[in-house]
Design a protein that fits this description.
This protein is an alpha/beta fold and about 725 residues long. Helix content is about 30%, strand content about 20%. Bound molecules: alpha-D-galactopyranose. Alpha-D-galactopyranose binds next to loops. This is Beta-galactosidase.
């Protein structure tokens, strides 16, 4: 995907399986240009425009004491720099950058285009976004701009040009931070016109568009381009392909704006990396398409205290960032030291929690650990959001912890740039996510990110590291490929999965995969049609499961699968912690084994006797298919069997519950997310990087404690 224009690969509506790497600037500087000589990056968003200048001096002294080496400046400073249209006030920013530089602190300088000043919307209301009901959204908060507005674009780029000219040679400038958390969606007339332009490029003519959108359904035929709108609020379910194309368009339109700013910065400062902050599994923006256009992959991550799955979600998200960075290092650009302000009930973080979260990111490939924000605001909508320096000041328990964390991160400098090895890949695709979760589907309880987590969690529990990859990625280096839910499946991706197994790989596919083509049209024939050969199985009906009565399934013993007459009926694969039976939830499918063998069958109702889990020998590999959503313990049992098939083991055997184990380079991280102490037996003597202690045999991790173990030669 190239961003400015929709992809064309000869077939309307198809996308290439992998985003093409940006080819306009081949040798771009990356994260190493920041970490070289600095080690792990540590710092936060710094908003000096909210404070008098004497506080800036104190800030820099405190930053130095806390080992801060990078701050993001100016994210929301458009009105301060351009108080009236066309004016410029850079004097204050000059002084901020000089002060930071004198203090040895590098600057990630933001283009302040995420929040235009009120004058823009006041004079040019057409720059303000319109929601799907046609209501304009006003200034007074932030993000009030339309990605397709020519006036916004012109004003933003003029400012970016002047900012780049002003600071190109400033010694504090280490990275550019474009905008903030891109995600705007707009339904204004400018957007509708831009959407039509995007569709013309994609489909060429109206006849092709009508076919792609299936407009013979409900009399939706378009006779003129001008009739086409963004999918505004309508009386009933909207056209799913129109919705899908609009999601593609929105992601592309934002990317086009990001690239326009980025190109100005790159032209002026070719050796300074450019980034923007991602938001994990943020649905509106296809980060696989964006990542090739970033010099540094950076994420904002705000785990919910009180969510027991939080550590697993975090690990999955960090692995996604590493995948977006092509396996290289990435940075955590925003996180919180304590409670945030934007939930209903903002729980605080107990002692050790933010440190644990930060070190978890390091374990999974982060070379930068930054926070929102440096100093807690006194006013404005985020005055209750945690910071590195709270309202009470530096003489606080929280700030002491911040300092301690800054100091200990220095000891992890040897890990900078180290890879995180993985033998398992997990496939995720934004476009499939959009298409899968369209309105009017069989069940809105089958959610893509829930499915990702269901397949990921048992791997996490076993200490198996996973790479997140897009469809069409090179798979030959992996022993196991997991496809939790790939609703949209192109022939090319199906072929890549098929040949991966043929050549000896192990594949695990979850339900409701391979259902539709890239237009969102259902593949006809028994499903999943494009994967039928590799799975050795096929289905004919998707059957959402009632909450009551439960739908039971039964594991079939290995011997029974082989047809061994002496096998006792109902014995389970060796040894299953779940027992003979498990309960299927949410979803089931009526499947038939072809060359595959059933590994578990449904026991109840119309599905009684039909396979729930299947395993197929194909070529020199194996393919597994799961036709339901089992309870958690059954997912663990299934994962253990699939891991055994793939000869993959975790980085440490017998991990206690709640302990995360992951290796970065040759260094083993053990993180205790559990509520109680956890005893772990090591397989080799090691030096602990944070304390310098020698560790051997068994060790006990207190709750929220982390050890970073480098094997002793
Ligand atoms: C996001 C934004 C920040 C701030 C924080 C609050 O990450 O980028 O500007 O609003 O959320 O958690």
């Amino acid at each position: 995907m190239t961003g400015d224009s929709p992809q064309r690969d000869g077939t309307p509506g198809l996308r290439p399986d992998r985003p093409a790497a940006a080819s306009d600037q081949p040798a771009r500087p990356g994260l190493h240009s920041l970490t070289a000589g600095r080690g792990m990056l540590f710092g936060g968003d710094y908003n000096p425009e909210q404070w008098p200048e004497e506080v800036w001096v104190e800030d820099v002294a405190l930053m130095r004491a806390a080992h801060v080496n990078l701050v993001t400046v100016g994210v929301f400073s458009w009105a301060r720099i351009e108080p009236e249209p066309g004016t410029r006030d850079f004097g204050w920013l000059d002084r901020v950058l000089d002060l930071l530089h004198d203090g040895g602190i590098a600057v990630d300088l933001a283009t302040p285009t995420a929040s235009p000043p009120p004058w823009l919307g006041h004079r040019w209301p057409e720059t303000l976004p319109v929601d799907e009901s046609g209501h304009r959204l006003y200034y007074g908060a932030r993000n009030q701009w339309c990605p397709s507005s020519p006036i916004y674009r012109e004003r933003a780029l003029a400012l970016v040009t002047d900012l780049a000219d002003r600071y190109a040679d400033h010694p504090a400038l280490a990275m550019w931070h474009v905008g903030n958390e891109y995600g705007q969606v707009c339904h204004c007339d400018d957007t509708a016109a831009a959407f039509r332009g995007w569709l013309r490029e994609r489909y060429g003519d109206l006849a092709t568009l009508n076919e792609a959108w299936g407009t013979t359904f409900w009399s939706q035929h378009y006779g003129q381009w001008d009739e086409i709108l963004t999918p505004r609020r309508a009386p009933y379910l909207r056209n799913p392909t129109q919705m899908l194309d609009f999601q593609r368009f929105c992601s592309d339109a934002l990317l086009a704006h990001y690239r326009a700013e980025r190109d100005i910065l790159r032209r002026r400062t070719p050796s300074v990396p450019v980034t923007t902050n991602f938001m994990g599994f943020f649905k509106p923006v296809d980060y696989w398409a964006w990542a090739p256009h970033e010099d540094v992959v950076a994420n904002d991550w705000y785990p919910f205290p009180g969510d027991p799955r939080s550590p697993v979600r975090a690990a999955l998200t960090h692995d996604l960032m590493r995948g977006l960075a092509g396996g290289g290092p990435w940075m955590l650009l925003e996180q919180a030291t304590d409670g945030v302000n934007w939930q209903k009930h903002n729980l605080p973080k107990p002692a050790g929690q933010f440190r644990l979260e930060s070190l978890q990111a390091v374990a999974r490939g982060a070379d930068g650990l930054c926070y929102f924000q440096w100093r807690a605001s006194r006013f404005g909508a985020e005055r209750y959001h945690a910071a590195m320096v709270p309202h009470a000041g530096a003489d606080t328990r929280l700030h002491t912890r911040v300092r301690e964390h800054g100091a200990e991160l220095r000891r992890l400098a040897p890990l900078v740039g180290q890879p995180v090895p993985a033998r398992v890949a997990l496939v995720h695709d934004w476009q499939s996510w959009w298409a899968c979760e369209s309105d009017g589907r069989p069940s809105d309880r089958l959610l893509v990110t829930d499915q990702l987590l269901r397949f990921y969690e048992p791997l996490w529990r076993r200490g198996v590291t996973v790479d997140l990859v897009p469809p069409g990625a090179e798979l030959s280096g992996y022993r196991l490929v997991v496809v939790p839910n790939l609703f949209l499946l192109s022939d090319a991706t199906a072929e890549s999965l098929t040949s991966y197994v043929r050549d000896g790989g192990v594949l695990l596919v979850g339900p409701f995969s391979g259902v539709a083509d890239p237009l969102g049209h259902i593949h006809t024939g028994r499903f999943p049609a494009p994967l039928r050969e590799v799975l050795g199985a096929s289905g004919e009906a998707w059957l959402p499961v009632a909450d009551d009565p439960p739908l039971r399934c039964r594991w079939i013993a290995d011997a029974e699968q082989r047809g061994d007459a002496d096998a006792p009926a109902g014995t389970v694969p060796d040894p299953s912690p779940t027992g003979v039976e498990f309960t299927a939830t949410i979803w089931s499918e009526l499947m038939r084994a072809e060359s595959a063998r059933p590994v578990a069958t449904f026991l109840d109702g119309d599905l009684a006797g039909a396979p729930a889990v299947l395993r197929n020998e194909f070529g020199t590999g194996r393919a597994w298919y799961l036709a339901t959503v089992p309870q958690e313990a059954a997912m663990v049992a299934l994962t253990d069997r699939v891991l055994a098939d793939a000869a993959v083991t975790g980085v440490l055997p017998d991990l206690p519950d709640g302990v995360e184990a992951v290796r970065r380079g040759d260094t083993l991280f053990l993180l205790n997310h559990g509520a109680g102490p956890a005893r772990v037996t090591l397989t080799e003597p090691a030096g602990e990087l944070l304390t310098g202690d020698r560790v051997e045999g068994a060790l006990t991790l207190a709750p929220r404690d982390v050890v970073v173990l480098k094997p002793l030669a």
